[in-house]
Design brief:
Blueprint: E1 4-6, H1 19-28, H2 32-44, E2 49-53, H3 58-67, E3 76-81, H4 84-102, H5 109-122, H6 126-137, E4 147-150, H7 152-161, H8 165-178, E5 181-186, H9 189-198, E6 205-209, H10 221-230, E7 234-238, H11 248-256, E8 263-266, H12 271-288
Parallel strand pairs: 1-8, 2-3, 3-4, 4-5, 5-6, 6-7, 7-8
Helix pairs in contact: 5-6, 6-8, 11-12
Length: 290
C-alpha cells in the first residue's frame, strides 16, 4: 500500500467539528468537475491512491478516470462500501426487498435474482451480501482496486450484532472475485481484530481513527497503542488531525512514531493543504525507516 492515501469526506460535506464548513464544502463540490480539480492537485502532489465511498457521484469520477486513464498512470481506487445514506434513503422509499432489487447488478440479472431470492428464503446473508458487493463494485469496472473496504457503519454494526461470519464472507468474496485484499473501517479497532482473528482473516488491513487526543477511538488511546504494539495487522490511520484539533506537524509526527503503521489517509480541498500534509507524511514516514 502507498504511504499516503487521499480521502473523499470533503467532497460530501463530512466535517466532524464544523457543520458550517461541511455545508460550504458540500456546496463547492456540487459539480463533479470541482472534485476532479482537487484530485488533480493530489495527483500533482504525488498521491496515487484515492480512498472513496460508493456514493452515486463517485461513479462520475470513475467515468472520468476511465476516459482519461492515460493521463493518470498508477492511479488506484480503494473503494469503501456501502455508502450508508444511499441504502437508508432507498429503504425509506422502497422497503428492504425493494432496495435489494434496486441495487442488484444488471449483468446476469436472472442469476442474481435467483441467488438473492434463495438467500432471502433461507435467511442467509451470504447471497445478498455478495450481490450487493457486486452492485457497489460495478462503478469501478476497469479501474485498479487492489484493496476494497467495508465501511465502519456496517463493520461496527456487525460487530455489535455478533454477526462474525459476515466478515469472512466479505473477505472471501473480495479475494476470489476481485483478486483484491479486503479492508475494514472501524471505530473499534481492538474488538474488530479479535473477531477477524476468530474467523480466520489473517493480517487484516484496518483503517481506523488514530490520533494524539483519542478522538473517536473506541476503547481509548492506551488500548490502541497497546494493540498497535502487539497485534499482527496492517493499520491505516484516519482522522489523524482530529478534525483540525491538532496542528498538522504535531499530529503526523505522533502517528508516524507508532509501530506497524502502513498508511495515512487524509482529505483536503486546497492545493496548499494537500502539499503540506503530503510533505509532512513523507518526512515522518522516512524518519521512521532510518
Amino acid at each position: 500500500m502507498d504511504k499516503v492515501l487521499f480521502g473523499d469526506n470533503q467532497f460530501f460535506g463530512v466535517n466532524h467539528m464544523s457543520e458550517e464548513k461541511a455545508r460550504a464544502q458540500s456546496m463547492r463540490f456540487r459539480d463533479t468537475q470541482a472534485m476532479i480539480e482537487v484530485l488533480d492537485m493530489a495527483y500533482e502532489a504525488g498521491i496515487r491512491t484515492f480512498m472513496c465511498t460508493t456514493h452515486d457521484r463517485i461513479s462520475e469520477v470513475c467515468d472520468y478516470f476511465r476516459k482519461h486513464a492515460d493521463s493518470y498512470p498508477g492511479f488506484k481506487f480503494y473503494p469503501g462500501m456501502p455508502y450508508a445514506h444511499k441504502y437508508a434513503n432507498a429503504v425509506t422509499d422502497h422497503g428492504i426487498a425493494g432496495t435489494i432489487k434496486r441495487f442488484l447488478p444488471d449483468d446476469g440479472l436472472f442469476d442474481a435474482v435467483v441467488r438473492g431470492g434463495s438467500a432471502v428464503a433461507k435467511k442467509e446473508i451470504d447471497g445478498i451480501a455478495t450481490l450487493l458487493i457486486d452492485a457497489e463494485m460495478k462503478m469501478f469496472a476497469g479501474l485498479s482496486t487492489p484493496v476494497i473496504f467495508l465501511q465502519n457503519v456496517v463493520t461496527d454494526f456487525l460487530l455489535g450484532l455478533g454477526m462474525k461470519d459476515a466478515f469472512r464472507i466479505f473477505a472471501d468474496h473480495i479475494k476470489t472475485k476481485y483478486n483484491a485484499e479486503p479492508g475494514f473501517f472501524s471505530m473499534n479497532m481492538p474488538r474488530l481484530l479479535d473477531v477477524l482473528e476468530e474467523v480466520g482473516v489473517e493480517n487484516p488491513i484496518v483503517c481506523t481513527n488514530i490520533n494524539k487526543i483519542g478522538f473517536r477511538m473506541s476503547g481509548g488511546i492506551d488500548l490502541y497503542q497497546e494493540t498497535l504494539a502487539h497485534r499482527q495487522f496492517r493499520p491505516i490511520a484516519m482522522s489523524v488531525l482530529a478534525s483540525g484539533a491538532i496542528p498538522p506537524r504535531e499530529a503526523i509526527e505522533y502517528v508516524c512514531k507508532l509501530p506497524k503503521l502502513q498508511s495515512i489517509v487524509f482529505g483536503a480541498s486546497g492545493r496548499g493543504n494537500i502539499r503540506q500534509t503530503k510533505a509532512l507524511i513523507d518526512e515522518f514516514m522516512a524518519a521512521r525507516q532510518e
